[in-house]
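Schema walkthrough. Field components (list of strings):
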Amino acid sequence: MKAKRVLALICTLAMTAGMCTQVTAADATDDLSEHVEITLGGVNVNGSDSNEGWPNEVVQKLEEKFNVTFTVKNYDNESLNLDLSGGTTCDIVQINDDHLEGVLKGKHAVNLEDYKDTLAQNIFSENMTFRNDLMKTYKSNGEGVQYFVTPRVTFEGSKFNYGTTLNNGYVVRWDLYKQIGCPEINNDDDYIAALKAMKEIYPETEDGLPTYAMSAYNDSQLHAYFYKGCLAEGYVNLEGGVYVQNVTTNELVPDLYDVGVEGTTPFWSGVKFYNKLYREGLLDPDCFITKSEDVQEKYNKGQYIGGNVNWYYGTYNENQRAADPETLKEYVTLPEYLGWGNEKNLGGWFGKYFFVSSHSPNVERAVMILDYLQSEEFSRDADSGVEGRWETGADGKVALTEDTIDLKNNGSRVEEWRKSGIGNGILVNICGEDYYNVADDGGMIDLWFEDDMLDDSMTFAEKDMCETMGLTLPSDVLKNKVEAGTSIDLGTCLNAIQMGLATTPKNITRIDSNCEEIAMSAIPNLVQAESDEEFEAAKADLLAQLKDAGAEESVEWWSNAWAEAKTTIEGLNK
Amino acid sequence: MTANRKTAALALHKPKKRYSLLFMVLPFMLIIFLFNYVPIFGWIYSVFDYIPGVPILECDYMGMDYFKMMLKDANVLRSLKNTAIFAVISIALTPLPMFFAIFLNEIKCGPVRKFVQTFTTLPNFISWVIIFSLAFSLFSTDGLLTNAFARLTGTNPSSVLSSKESVYWFQSFLGQWKMLGWNSIIYLAAIAGIDQQQYEAAKVDGAGHFRCAVHVTLPAMMETYVVLFILNIGNFLNTGYEQYMLFKNAVTAPTIEVLDLYVYRIGLENMDYSYGVAISIVKSIVSIALVVLANLVAKKIRGNTVI
Amino acid sequence: MNKKNKIQTSASRKVFQVFNYLLMLGIAFICIYPFWYIIIYTFSEARLADVNPPVFLPRGFSLSNYKDIFELNGFFHSLFISVLRTVVGTFASVLSCSFLGYLFTKEEMPARKLMYRFLILTMYVSGGMIATYIVVKSYGLLNNFWVYILPMLISAYNIVLIKTFVEQLPASLEESAKLDGAGYLTIFTKIILPLSKPIIATVAVFVAVNHWNSWFDNHIYARGNESLTTLQYLLYNYLNEAQRLADQIKNTTNAAGMSQISTSISPKGVRMTITVLASLPIFMVYPFMQKYFVKGIMVGAVKG
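Field assembly_structure (string):
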């Protein structure tokens, strides 16, 4: 105990620099006479320094409105840790779950409720009630006040559609898929049969390189495996994929350690799928080495026939179109059981929490800015441009102007497009409302998503696909399947439950990341199993290792935490 | 007073102490103290469950828990084993830059020598990320070298990147390739510092090129080599993490994860700042112990300490 | 040595020479080619290089990798800062380290071993990033140019190199100077420095390259002051942005988010361009320094 006291003394001496003061807001004013600088620092946000066209029209409007210079900076884990330790954070900060505890316990955030009726009326608007309740209940260290806001909150009555094309599912090369007669794909086995048929007619690329069905992107840990399974089985993953949430029942399921779980969990479904590919000789032999960049390179060379996500084939498609505008050689995505659409982020985007720093020399102005970022006006600006880029037509409908549409598609006006700030990579990540929310004027927040805008952007191959398969839009395959009840979307998924989870204790975090690591190393044996017996043996081996690593302790904690969060959140949502 | 007498007594055997020297050194010592020693107060974080942003006294006091945890952590043991293997290989290869310098020095054509000297330092500037992507295009299953090798031996192409067994020598090879030219600079400087009279004397004695290299060049570099060797021994556990992080994949993971990579991982993924500090404290202690030991051995062998 | 022997020696010498040339050029080749590949990649048209990486010459020809970098906001200012810190930092550090290295060879210094070990220890202990940050902050060095110079001023490793080198120098030189009544400073500048050119050139290369390529101190100590942004940090941010854009496409689970993002810059091209820029000082400084590497430092010459 004596040792502790000595330590305490040393600490107090050494830590003088790291202290922070709490600013209270007794009399909030909206005095804008002084020009100040407001900086927003965010994890995984791009900086405005190198953002082309910054300050763009949308930002200029904000700056004039509040008499500020507004800049955005990137934080990584390191720099955020340092700024928190030294009390030197930006005026507005966006963090992820990792730093919640530090911000709350270290009192780095301003209580937004002090400005409820004055400067923060957008944040506390009626539509945001559920989100605010979440923040107050779960992200306040038990104090019951609101420090944080999330971006992109989905409101009651938002519209939705599946977009023009799908982003996740069974990827096929359209020209090959057409050649084998567009066989219907309803499950993994159908898909593998199709891949096999496509590979038969396309065993190597035009340059003589061997072709494969697909590979995994190993720089995202287990993602390639469990995400494939999520789509096939109807789950969404919690970060890291050690646990997954059932989309229809909203139950939590341990993904890796599936002892006692009914049915197939996403991880095991995905691994099984890769194993089948392996046994059919369709899997890239470099499957365990390839990282995103390598995967993309091989797509660029046309070496893959399939895939699960649309992240890597964009360049290939572009290159083919550049060579021949009427090419059919393009990747398109067909739906799996779960279509990743109609997502309702009632609590806003997960893992992005904005707060006003108590270290800011201009707390009030920062609150005003954060409030404005949350507003309908700013959200519309960020997605669709400032008023004038869109207008209310004679029929009373709000729509983008012809000029704006030309601006987006006309390569020679790219400077002007950037200057307009429409869809700016920074802004779309910090505004308050969901793309699909309906604004007061009756138009969606993102006017590009209005139904009549969708078919404008189809490529020749996509049009051919619609013609061949009798569709209006490529995404209609999913729409039809959902209507027929053979596929589901995210509409029933209450992802806000994830926000209600208690902070994971460190020992559980350690167990989980250890389990992730163990599972990663087990993948080669699983995927390369030559027979079902071998696969089961490898699985039993992995499960035993997970158990030794404490998987059962983790499962117990998570099940309890989930049950608790689920009950309360479902209560809040009613 | 005692101190004075003691120095006076010593002065009988050793040169007289010059206190003016002390005044010249002290300002530099102060800078070292301010920038290298004051921050060591950060070791305090290892006995708390430190959360960045929270005043340390409000964090939970953990005592020696993290140090105990380290002993039980299977990952630490495994990564220690890997670290040791990599370190032993790299220590065994420490003479390479010296021999490279000697051989390079035997190139009598000035422009060629300068050319080789300059351009062999280039890999030092290539970051590991790029090395990985270059290695991927050469050594993946479809890679150029893998295929050439398979065709040569008539075997099926199999990638060295996804081979658990080849990790140690392959990674060491890459490390040598990256650092060889750069590390040889120091030996080239040592060669340049050799008094030409020594060569002339050796030649008068009838020594050829080879004997000159063995009897003049090599001994002149040994001093530098031994000093660097001992400093390297202290870095036994400091392998860095970048290389291993990039070449780590599902297959190589068990053999490639070194201690530094593990520490990086727990800091990043688990936000275990304090645990990371605890491990780095132990690493420092091990390093110092190793250097002291090496220094003692050197004293036994050579009669004087190096450090 | 009889004649036969001599012929044999020269024959084996020739064999050795041929072998040695082959070996050195072979090593040089495996070092140069990857770098050449990087260079031609940066001059290739991104679209072509992506599909079909270049082998000996660029695929197509494009300067856009470099143009994009030159057009970054504040490129020239950050270049200036980088050059400034490299010049000031190298000069200050080389001078301090060589002076200290020399002083540590003086046995008449009180507590010499103790202080030398105090210095060596810094190679193996560190307080961790957070503590270092708090300390630097309390010195008032945050967002201050000197934060680039002071922490890197004294490098134990370089001092060891210099000390070892100086110890190898014949002691007789110094003794004779001392008899002439020269002080430490005079001996250092008049005798030690000229004789130690090879090692000082070496250390200068090390320090200069280190300064030129360091971005981390900028990242943690001088983020808040844009006028102190160094070139490497500017590039680091640029690369990260390219990387994040690529990642964002992956991480946006929201279907709608994706259509907004285009992949205009490829992280790979940026990374390779940065490599070329990072190696610039070695081309500019090293050949210049190499003239101090030439053999034939004649101790006698300094004597006279």
